[in-house]
Amino acid sequence: xxxxxxxxxxxxxxxxxxxxxxxxxxxxxxxxxxxxxxxxxxxxxxxxxxxxxxxxxxxxxxxxxxxxxxxxxxxxxxxxxxxxxxxxxxxxxxxxxxxxxxxxxxxxxxxxxxxxxxxxxxxxxxxxxxxxxxxxxxxxxxxxxxxxxxxxxxxxxxxxxxxxxxxxxxxxxxxxxxxxxxxxxxxxxxxxxxxxxxxxxxxxxxxxxxxxxxxxxxxxxxxxxxxxxxxxxxxxxxxxxxxxxxx
Amino acid sequence: xxxxxxxxxxxxxxxxxxxxxxxxxxxxxxxxxxxxxxxxxxxxxxxxxxxxxxxxxxxxxxxxxxxxxxxxxxxxxxxxxxxxxxxxxxxxxxxxxxxxxxxxxxxxxxxxxxxxxxxxxxxxxxxxxxxxxxxxxxxxxxxxxxxxxxxxxxxxxxxxxxxxxxxxxxxxxxxxxxxxxxxxxxxxxxxxxxxxxxxxxxxxxxxxxxxxxxxxxxxxxxxxxxxxxxxxxxxxxxxxxxxxxxx
DNA sequence: GTCACGCCCTAACCTATGTGTATCTTGGCC
DNA sequence: GGCCAAGATACACATAGGTTAGGGCGTGAC
Lengths: 247, 247
Description:
The structure is a homodimer. By secondary structure, chain A is α+β, with helices and mostly antiparallel strands. The first copy, chain A, folds into 2 domains: 9-141, Jelly Rolls; 152-246, Arc Repressor Mutant, subunit A (Orthogonal Bundle), CATH 1.10.10.10. Chain A is 43% helix and 20% strand. In chain A, helix 3 packs across helix 4. Chain A binds chain B through residues 49, 65, 67, 69-70, 73, 75, 77, 89, 92-95, 97-98, 128, 131-132, 134-139, 141-146, 148-151, 192-193, 232, 236-237, 239, and chain B through 49, 65, 67, 69-70, 73, 75, 77, 89, 92-95, 97-98, 128, 131-132, 134-139, 141-146, 148-151, 192-193, 232, 236-237, 239. The structure holds a DNA duplex.
């Protein structure tokens, strides 16, 4: 019933998950002009060395940031769900130091930098929330450093599954304890610094231990406490507001 | 000759290394009120779970951000040299998700959040540089993820030594190809996700290969090109201005 | 002066994890 | 109907890097 939600709806949900947003600010966000485009699967939106002139809002789908090393190895730094603006940093850093690509077909909103800058000037509180968002990003990177450097493969995968769950839930995109996870095991390997075979092993062990069930392109958490314990997961670093955390 | 540099001198050098700063802005920074305190070695300045009401400027010494895992393992996320404001994030993230501690005796300037916020409001361009600085921080974290996940121990240590060199040089704190590095091998291990023994092995190999010489609490780079190649080091991710990069 | 401790270094051992290869299933899509 | 990508499983093998243990040396404390 009613018209479809505006493309910025997911952005509002996202911002509200990390800071309060006033009615007036909400309206301003809805009015934020952007160009919406559908991008096919496994396609780069922005590339290493690019000098973007716009920011990307993930409206639908799943994207990731990654880098390819001289030897051809790939490292994924983050997954981005609807509501995220993965390259917000390009507002202040001219040159990209990594790639942003899709993992599945995505709907992306493009916001010119000039528009974004005017918007932030007109709504400094939202500017602060944007800054906050990039700081949370950094917090997630720190947690990934810890995850990769100090936890074994089983813990690593458990931790990543916890993070995805909490973030999707905060975005209103989890269905109970189940969420869509259209990420291949090879991609999980690129994110956790493991091999696909080892990701496979770890997932099987998580299943065997009754912590998760994983269907086709989705995950169901069978034992939330157990999974958190297995991954030493503590969501503090996501800096979500209590209501978004509980969801 | 002349009076000693104001405590904010290092901050000015730092900001100028990542963005242009006008004379007027420079004067405003010098006038920025802060409380200077000397902190002893191996002491926490801010702790995990704290809700700081001020930001810390490293004026002298060396600090690091780190987290301690349930099992007692420690992960260091970053090293901070004079001019850095390691907990700038606390301006927008209430609760600390990691610790900030000294590695050697430090001189630290404390700037109340309220002061910093007023300052940013009065000098929005410097506010943008601060934001930019936190974004560079995130870029460094991404590079560390890559380093730890995808490079072997030898490369990892080489990369870290390169990063420290370039940053210290941009801050005017390198002496030719030599720089002070009062970091123990155990701390290097905590930063690179390795064991002390393995850090030791890697340093020895770097020395054996004629890439570095390491004296007491200092490092001399014998073969800069070789060290960069060994660590696959590309300074793009530090987003330094050309003049700071060349230094 | 000497004692103790932190830091550095070394060596032997061992395990977690990656590599390579192979086979088999399943489901989606042309 | 058939192809292809993703996943599951299962070996054999290689090895980076962790663990444990012990020794030496410089330096600051007393």
